[in-house]
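Q: Structure for this?
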Amino acid sequence: MTEPSKALERALELGRTIEPRLGAQDLERLQRQIRDRSAKARLGTPMRFAVVMAAAALLFAGSREAWLRGTHVEAVAAGAPTAVAAAVSSVSAPAPPGRLPSPLVLSDRSRVQPRDSGTELSVVEDSPTNVRVKLTRGRGHFEVAPGTERVFSVLAGGVEVTVLGTVFDVEVVADRVGVDVERGSVRVNWKLGAAELTAGQSGWFPPLVVDERRDTPPRAPGPPAPAASSIEASTPESAQSLLKQADAARAGGDAALGAQLLRRVLREHAKDPRASLAALTLGRLLLTELHRPAEAAAAFAQVELHAPGSPFADDALAHQAEAWQAAGQAAKAQQLATSYLKRYPSGRHARHMRALAESE
Amino acid sequence: MVKNEHSSPGDLDQLYKDYCRYVAAILLRIGGRRGELEDSIQDVFAEATAGIAQVRQPEAIRGWLATIAVRVARRTLRRRRLARLIGLTPSTSEYESLADPAASPFDRALLARLYRALDRLPVDDRVAYVLHHVEGETLDAVAALCGCSGTTAKRRILRARLALEELLADD
């Protein structure tokens, strides 16, 4: 087909940016009206017949407003909707074990897909100029529609990821937020800094701060030591350094190297306060990137081993149950889910664990 | 038949939450009238509530909802045309508020002109054209959404484009 004229092309560009501008209250009201309508539809024909006759009478009376309202006649006959409290659209856990929650599709056709069944997402704002999605837990995959002028932001912990027309993943693990850009570019902001990531880049934020003076012994003057090119270097490395290398390996796409480095932290620095975080990160890496769920379960089990009562303990126990489920060990998964519910009846993962414990 | 995740009442709420904005955007971009939008959304989800259990594949829900939205939009447009035929001519000033509030007066007026011109097209031509050139759907997808062949969809889109070129040139 030949190309349209400039005026038509410009008009079409504008047409693509038309937004419904439905706020949270509008959506909540509509939802109630839909429920009411569905309930009334089950009442049978007498109500519907009365409404249709009313509509016909209004039509013959020549009422322009009644005709144009169409189904408003039905809504008027059914009674006015009541005011409702504001609510935020959300995609939340739990989906049935082994299945992902449905994606969230925004008005500009941007899509937000939870990456695992424990992910919790909510839309904080969806206006013509701004979209803000909050990732409370888990991992989300974001496909932001190009060609719009809206600012799309993901809030996760103390980190904000801002994008314009791109595809990326954001993951929350304990107090760290991972960002992985597939297409386009994103800007990551946190309290003390900012970074830009382009396609193929990823990182964990806030980044680890390495204080070389604190963590490595001072070197005597002389020729520099050979670079540690192998992870089996004989010189012991600090936990901080190993964790930083593991981050870098994951950011560079080498999950296997990252896993090896994290295992070194657990082996060589078992008493380090960061060991439990290393175990949690190792478990996540084994489960979601290396797809070795049985090993992941073992890693998650080490979180409490290294730090009883760790702040990550409830995450680790829940993920351990999920890992055994993924490994096909349903009985173990249910047992752990039940343990979780005993220990953390109101925990963040309680809904999901309840579903897992009750699954067949 | 595979039971999909949205078949129970709680999941129908989730269906609404997941797809309401998506459905609203399709309806508004086809119809152009914010005043009709909420009724049309209700119509779509009322139909969806009745038919969701028939959807065989959960991953087909999005496309299925889009099909219902297109059907509802066509019904609304036909009702408008009938209203015009019997002398109940609705105001088109609503089209001025379609564009982004930050748009220039020129852009707002241009978009309103487009939708007034779309009002003058046959409903099927309008719907196919908007689906293809505004929503960005492929010809195959337009055909599926409109329930017609690919050839018919292509013909409607071309006819609409020629008419719009003429109408926008005349204004």
